[in-house]
Amino acid sequence: MSNTDMNMRGKIIFYEEKNFQGRSYECMNDCSDMTSYLSRGQSCRVESGCFMVYDRQNYMGNQYFMKRGEYSDYMSMMGMRENIKSCRMIPMHRGQFRMKIYERENFGGQSHEMMDDCENIQERYRMSDCQSCNVMDGHWLMYEQPNFRGKMMYMRPGDYRSFREMGMSGMKFMSMKRIMDSCY
């Protein structure tokens, strides 16, 4: 595999201890259960690509976005309470970004098509909530608070009829951001 191919794929290395110490686990694709490789994780290094990491197995629980860089103590840096239990590589996307957001579940209520980042759906679209969406192009991060703050959820192309049924009960998504290729 060439160096260029490896950079396109992404690479993240998890360490059991802070400051890149202890046993390590190198990951270049999705991993639904990291507990068989490491008993805990305190730091990581993203050598290429972007990843979503989760504090529960099978890509569940709180989600955190990690791009190229070093995270010597990611639990305190990101406010995590649990160790990372699974991770998903975010494929690089070149081209346009398109997502249609809906005020209610099952694509109901007011809707708007987005092609760029939105810091606040209430201000831009006069929407008080977003409960479902259709991602047509690109990969997106949705945040529970305006200005890309609070808990987040990774959205890849597909239909998302109910955020509540996806385990995001009680969360309102108020801002959305494209995952651009600048993280590669």
From TrEMBL:
A Pfam family matched in the record: Crystall
Keyword flag Magnesium: no
Beta/gamma crystallin 'Greek key' domain: residues covered: 10-48, 49-91, 138-180
GO molecular function term, any single one: structural constituent of eye lens
Residues of the signal peptide: none
DNA damage as UniProt keyword: no
SUPFAM superfamilies listed in its UniProt record: gamma-Crystallin-like
Keywords attached to this entry: Eye lens protein, Repeat
PROSITE patterns: CRYSTALLIN_BETA_GAMMA
Function statement: Crystallins are the dominant structural components of the vertebrate eye lens.
PANTHER family found in the cross-reference section: BETA/GAMMA CRYSTALLIN, CRYSTALLIN, GAMMA M1-RELATED
Family: Belongs to the beta/gamma-crystallin family.
Protein name in UniProt: Beta/gamma crystallin 'Greek key' domain-containing protein
